[in-house]
Amino acid sequence: MATPMTAEPGRSSRQPDLVEIKGFRGRLIGCDHAGYDIARAVWNGAVERHPRLIAQCIGTADVVAALRFARDHDLEIAVRGGGHNVAGTAVCDDGLVIDLWAMRAVRVDPVHRRAWVQGGALWGDVDHETQMHGLATTGGIVSHTGVAGLTLGGGVGWLMRKHGLTVDNLLAANVVTADGELLRASESEHPDLFWALRGGGGNFGVVTSFEFGLHPLGPIVLAGPLFWDASEARQVLRFYRDFIRNAADELGTVVRFGTAPPLPVIPPELHWRPVVMIGTCYAGRIEDGERALAPLRGCRAPLLDLVGPTPYVGFQSALDSTVVHGWSYYWKSTHLPELSDELIDVIAGHAFSSASPRSYAAMFHLKGAVSRVAEGGTAFGNRQASHAITLDAVWRPGEDFAARDTAWAKGFFAALGRFREGVYVNFLGGDEDPGRVREAYGDRVYDRLVDVKARYDPDNVFHHNQNIRPRSSHATTSRTTDSL
Ligand SMILES: Cc1cc2nc3c(=O)[nH]c(=O)nc-3n(C[C@H](O)[C@H](O)[C@H](O)COP(=O)(O)OP(=O)(O)OC[C@H]3O[C@@H](n4cnc5c(N)ncnc54)[C@H](O)[C@@H]3O)c2cc1C
Fold first, then answer.
1. What is the value of pTM for the model shown?
2. CB burial string 133-162: b at 16+ within 10 A, e below
3. What DSSP line would sit under 214-232, residue for residue?
4. What is the number of the ligand 1 atom nearest to the C-alpha of 100?
5. Domain end (from 59, 81, 99)
6. Distance from residue 300's CA to the centre of ligand 1 (Å)
7. Hey, which of 152, 165, 185, 321 would disulfide with 194, CB 3.0 to 4.6 Å?
8. 171 is a domain residue
9. For the chain, how many structural domains are there in total?
10. Does ligand 1 lie within 6 Å of residue 323's CB atom?
11. pLDDT of 203-253, one tens digit each?
12. Are residues 193 and 288 in the same domain?
């Protein structure tokens, strides 16, 4: 495969005139290619980067070839799974993107309850194939999120309280390491690498495929959102705190603070009304779920109750159209402890004061199986926290909410300051202090990650990410999120 690449004034002085990557069979896209702007776009439209070359791989051999080429030519490397990370780490300026978008195959063994998933797959791909057999594993709550980035950071979702984080269901991964070697990592093969892959992000290599354990689920589950007017946020959150304290592990909930989106299932008179929405999904028998959810559904007569038996696959994509590709996003995030009255006051006092009707905050209830894995059992940090909250400023092209809602997210985050208990690495935005990566893991896990990094990527080849810096003097300067 060859593609001509001409240097563009002001963008790069190092571009060769013609690029051929030996042994590469996928598509190479340079800046003069008709598909360049589409190929370099990521989910967050606020991220605008111009790589020198995008190597769209169709197999592991392509990944190895692209990686070797980038290293031989001393090119910056970014790795793209689903392209969903809010910090836009899947794409870099003036370097080479190892893009796995064409590697989306999923194979399921229903007898042994296992799924093999390629490194560019999205969660919609996985749910589609596994649900055909009435099986599932913990994935994200938006179907167009990439499997790779989400898994490597930990993976929170509706099923985590029952079945653990996504990484708790990971059995093995095939990884192309910094020196172009293909390794299989599992409990018995390169266990140090396997430990680090389960939370340490894209720091250790390019994962070409994952092997997950699956659990019986659905295909019909009891799930759906409940809505209350924003003016009731304090009372609803107090009730919710007490309700989830003893909730069954089967019950996953996410609280969304914002306006009611104009979805077809929501009556038009509620569209854009400020609401507290509690999304629910019961990973068990419908009748048990009905019993478990009855108290919450009886709380203060909700404006709207959409809880009911529903196909899990459909539920997994219910929020897709509220977080559209190409809109602009700015996130702040933190883990939180159990909701005290004081914390509830802070949340209720800030959650509804964004300028954009599309901005929102989302709070995932953790605990259950997440907290039963020992701290440090995998590289996912802060397992004892009760909640993970993201404060998400959203604006569409042409809208001028950027400054106001970025300030809103920052102000909300500052107000949560004294309650902060770490952070989920995958929710970190693009302008964070590098110290927040350490915060995502805690000192012990972070230091162990540094050791593994030194073993598998001592030159910090994979640094266009939430970077774990090796303790090596010759490591490439870290481009942690502050300079992305
Ligand atoms: C709308 C939305 C909803 C979300 N919901 C959830 C949720 O419910 N639960 C949750 O846990 N997270 C959620 N997230 C966060 C999500 O986990 C991260 O954004 C994650 O990075 C997305 O993975 P990706 O493959 O799409 O990322 P990309 O942007 O493609 O990649 C991000 C980074 O991951 C690494 N990476 C990607 N692919 C590979 C690979 N094959 N091998 C090695 N490294 C790789 C690279 O370092 C890359 O820079 C959500 C994000 C968004 C934007």
1. 0.95
2. bebbbbbbbbbbbbbbbbbbbbbbbbbbbb
3. -EE--SEEEEEEEEEEGGG
4. 41
5. 99
6. 37
7. 185
8. yes
9. 3
10. yes
11. 999 999 999 999 999 999 999 999 999 999 999 999 999 999 999 999 999
12. no
